[in-house]
Amino acid sequence: MLTASQIHEVVDEQQRYAQARRTGDSKSRTDEPELRKAWLKRKFGSFEYHEQLLKIHEAWLALIYASLARPEVKTNHPAEYAFFDGPARKNFDKAPKPGQLDPILWAPGQQTGWARSILDYGRDSGLDVVSVWNWMKDDERERMFALWGAMSRMAENIQYTVDKYWFNPRKGNDDSLLNELYTGPIDWPENWREELAGLQATTSTR
């Protein structure tokens, strides 16, 4: 489970990203582009990235059900309470819990592809209408949508990587992968080049 401070960081990052999308103020990497793209594809197709998505999903559900547990919700919003405590909960609980998947048996084309069916976060599911969540307090709803946005972005990064959607046939490249307008903010480690070289060396010796 993510700590309260980690959840706060995810919410803050997503809100900054949403603001950058609205203003067109996003970073685009131009130095060592091919190496950076290779590192990003490794990251988005990794077990660790998928586990991070599951941790945010878990935090999202915890927020929803902590809010739903307030007595006034059941009293004042009986239909919404029945839906979220019934069909919605059953659907949400289909997602594996963090740490449940075996990294040895895990393969990007399976579980990462499956991530799209936890909940198709970007799809018009009927849940993306603000009025559906009116039973939540304003601050709860704001954090809930921020976590949802982060999950949607991560799931799309996984999908585009596994299914090789980054390549744009019209432009003849996959340079959109370097634009944080599409990927969301990237926390580049200082040793990302060495990290990539190590992964490539491990792959080449198999």
Number of domains: 1
Q: Indicate the low-confidence ranges by residue numbers.
A: 113-118
Separation of the first and last Cα atoms: 34 Å
Task: Write down the Rg.
Answer: 19 Å
Structure write-up:
Helices cover 60% and strands 0% of the residues. 22% of the residues are buried. The chain has one domain (4-15, 31-204). It is globular, with a radius of gyration of 19 Å. Helix 1 packs across helix 8. The chain is mainly alpha-helical and 206 residues long. It is built from 10 helices and no strands. The model is unreliable at 113-118 (pLDDT under 50).
Would you kindly provide a brief summary of this structure?
The protein has helices spanning 4-23, 33-44, 47-68, 71-76, 78-85, 87-92, 108-114, 138-162, 180-183, 192-204. It is mainly alpha-helical and 206 residues long. It has one domain.
